[in-house]
Amino acid sequence: MATPSQYTDHQTPVAHLLVAKYGKEILTTWIVFVHDNFLYYPYGASTEKHKDLQANSLMMWEAIKFGKKMECITFDLWGREEGKGFTRFKEGFNPKVVEFLGTWDLVINPTIYKIYRFAEKIRWSLLRLRTKFGLIKPSF
Asked: Which pTM value belongs to this model?
């Protein structure tokens, strides 16, 4: 079991926010983590605006440069789902898939976790309906 100091006693931050802007407008944001010579990219978001600028491709290059600066050896792009846009994007940089152990949720409060999971199902259902009826373009 980890001790509290293992979560707080870091010489350098573990989490980093990478932001790509066009003018004053944020086009994409990534949260990356550095740990034991690994750079992890689990979370990101982008807008549909100015897609022709390919901000996510720029962000990938900047993340690679950042990882090298942090002396990382491996860049783990985290997760893939066949047929999804983010999978095609990631495989565009390296089609070789490396499977790691995986991830799990650490449930601290089972009641709140059940509510969260239910809310997530509703959220994704609504997003799919909105996409199906043309109210939004799919971005997942």
From this structure: 0.66
